[in-house]
Design brief:
The chain has 136 residues and is mostly helical. It contains 5 helices and 3 strands; from the N terminus they run H-E-H-H-H-H-E-E. It has a 3-stranded mixed sheet.
Length: 136
C-alpha cells in the first residue's frame, strides 16, 4: 500500500470505525491518483477540496459496497494485513481498472469475489477541477 494520505478527505465520524477507515482509504486512493500530467493535470496547491457532490457520491458508493460485502471485507482486511483502509484503497483501484487491487493480493477466491463486486459498481468518474473544487 502506498504511504500517501489525502490532504482533502473530509473527516469521517460514522459509528462504525471500520467504515470510517474504509472511507479514508478510498479517499486517499482517489486523491493519490489525481492527474499530474497532461492537459487535465491538477496544480495540487490550488485544490480547495472535494466538491460537496463528489463527497456525497463517493460516500454513497462506499456505503453500498461496504454493506453488500461486509463479511468478505472483514476477511480481506485481516488476510491482506492492510486493514479496512487498505480495503477502501483497493475498492477504488479495482473499480477504476488500475493494475492493482483486490484481485492482486494473492487471496484467491476472496480477492476475486471482491474484485468482481467492485467492478460491478463501475467507475467513480474522472476528476476535474472547477474553481479549486474537485468534481467527478
Amino acid at each position: 500500500m502506498p504511504q500517501f494520505h489525502s490532504n482533502h478527505a473530509p473527516g469521517f465520524n460514522y459509528a462504525d470505525s471500520d467504515f470510517n477507515d474504509f472511507l479514508e482509504g478510498y479517499f486517499d486512493a482517489a486523491e493519490w491518483l489525481w492527474p499530474e500530467d497532461g492537459e487535465d493535470a491538477f496544480d495540487r496547491s490550488k485544490v480547495r477540496g472535494w466538491s460537496a457532490a463528489a463527497k456525497r457520491s463517493m460516500i454513497a458508493d462506499c456505503r453500498d459496497f461496504y454493506r453488500a460485502n461486509k463479511v468478505d471485507l472483514a476477511a480481506y482486511a485481516e488476510a491482506a494485513d492492510h486493514g479496512m483502509s487498505g480495503a477502501g484503497h483497493d475498492f477504488f483501484l479495482t473499480r477504476e481498472g488500475h493494475g492493482a487491487g483486490f484481485w492482486d493480493r494473492g487471496l484467491g477466491e476472496l480477492g476475486e469475489r471482491l474484485a468482481s463486486a467492485a467492478r460491478s459498481h463501475g467507475t467513480a468518474g474522472y476528476p476535474y477541477l472547477v474553481r479549486g473544487w474537485v468534481h467527478l
